[in-house]
Amino acid sequence: MDDNNPLLAIPVLRTRVAPVFNWCSRVRIFSGGGPAPIQFQEEMDLGQLTAFNRLEALRRRGVLVLICGALSPDLLAYGEQIGLSIIAGVAGEIDEVVHAFGSRELDQPRFWLPGCQGPRRYRGGYAPGGAPCREPGSGEGPPEPRTRAGGARMGASKTGQATRDRGGPGGVCVCPLCGNTAPHRRGIPCTQVLCPLCRHAMVRQ
Q1: Which pLDDT score, from 0 to 100, does residue 194 have?
Q2: What is the overall mean pLDDT for the chain?
Q3: Annotated domain spans of the chain
Q4: Neighbours of 114 (CB within 10 A)
């Protein structure tokens, strides 16, 4: 796969970016985004797979960039560990989002997913950093605090509570797929630890 002409994936709900990757079933694949124009390739039905397996299927297909709405912290961590550049917190019509990605204009407010204001989270050299949105209703708590452009802290929940996985003592890391547990190591978020049995990202408990 040519990094200058990457495959791009966008989960869809009718004609728009699916608001939550964890719950989507269909993903559109595009080629381009480098020197070549972006062109539609296919629409994949991944509804039979778990969210983790959907990420793996996209990576096997050759996808390098995933544009999505909200996703849970453990999925974000795992996607990045398997080599995906994830642009989270995006909303809008698919055609408009694809065009904005090609022209590097996804930072426009009209493409912000409600509740996800701020710079889009671009990885792999596509654009400046930002902060992802957590999956609505997720029981895992928001991800490790990150920094917006300008230095504003990110990562507190709507109630103002601190994140659960901030490297404090005690607790265990649990694999959300196989249930395997491992002691939590101070200063290392569980979402950065791979399960020794199935190699998925773990979550704090």
Answers
A1: 78
A2: 73
A3: 7-111, 157-205
A4: 12
The two structure tokens encoding residue 193: 């630890």
* Angstrom distance (rounded) from CA 142 to CA 119: 17
Judge: domain 7-111, CATH 3.30.420.130.
yes
Q: How far is CA 27 from each of CA 45, 66, 94, 132, 141, rounded to the nearest angstrom?
A: 7, 10, 11, 19, 26
Stretches where the chain sits below pLDDT 70 are 1-6, 33-36, 115-170, 176-177, 198, 200
Give the pLDDT confidence score for residue 16 in this predicted structure: 95
Contact at 8 Å (CB) between 125 and 87?
Answer: no
**C-alpha torsion angle, residues 104, 110, 115, 121 (rounded to 10):** 0
- Closest among 112, 68, 98 to 6, alpha carbons compared: 98
